[in-house]
Amino acid sequence: MANILISGAGVAGSALAWWLRRQGFRPTVVERAPGLRDGGYKVDIRGAALEVIDRMGLREQVRRRDTGMRLARFVDVGGRQLATMDAQLFGGREGDDAEIMRGDLARILASATDDVEYVFGDSIATLTPTGDRVEVAFERGKRRTFDLVVGADGLHSTVRRLAFGPESAHLRPLGHHIAIFSVPAELGEEGVELMHPAPGRTVGVYRTAGAAQSRVLFLFPSPADEPDHRDVAGQQALLAEAFGGLGWQVPRLLDAMRDAPDFYLDSMSQVRMDRWSTGRIGLVGDAAYAPSPASGQGTSLGLVGAYVLAAALAEAPGDPVAGLAAYERRMRPFVSLNQQLAERNLKGMVLRSAAQIRFQTLMLRMMPHLPGRERLIRRVTEPIRKAATAITLPGPANARPPGHAGGCVERRG
Description:
By secondary structure, this protein is α/β, with parallel strands linked by helices.
């Protein structure tokens, strides 16, 4: 039974741990944060990713945590309604597609892996390949060796930096930044996504069904210089400057930013790499092929990538290098199609001029009355649907591992 270290307890990391355990491997998950990260935005699960959730037996749990969003409402500087849009169409969803808060999905996956060792509050310091093993030094814990190490640690992956070189060699910025954080409930409207478009900038705020707080989203052009992604004070100053002078609820939202425990700001970037593995070190999810939030497919890529990687490793017992290569061959075309969605979507998310905003809101108001409305809607959803289903999953990998006993593995902090 191979020992596999996974860096990152997010969606891709926990999903990979689940599938590896079902394939008879012994995964360990190390996470820099002291516990599961609860922040983040709404995420979509569609196409092949929904099939992965089905094969995990988690569909009903995901459904119970549905965001309950009903409507997107576009408003002007005074809060007056400009146009409305069905929430499903606004998110590019159709049929059985699911929408869930990222934190809720992370908790569902972590709970489902109660037979896996999680080590919180630690991270990888060095990786040293030694023949058929990888020796790992941690920031806090004891040095250990593993048969395979997988980075599922996001856009700013430590494993990618240690094994593949500087981050700058693999990140492809899309020219915009995104900020997300929680704000008081009264600043949002339950089940409604309030969107305020301004030239070159977009603000959105919403409250999911039953939520105690609302969430806010800011999109804006990337600055020439930006603080380090760990410098929260510098990032907040940058955001305040970027949206200074904007009306609507923006001043109140920026005031609430100071007290937000889950403040997040980063570039809208993709990860583009010539290869996702070197020896017995590999990458999955955003660490390998982040499509950026503009694609709407980051979570789905993480879920599918975790499934395909576990299946490929199981098909090459004792040869993780061959398994990593097979995983990459299967995933490359799927990743490429999904990454292509980002730039197309981004053009509609941040409009450059007042004239573009007027045209967009006019089209939204007219859409219910236009002939060929269904055809227009299909033009919106078809590229997403095509990308989301552009992979055939290998056969079900749902066998319970020998000796499974929930809750018996230590979770150290």
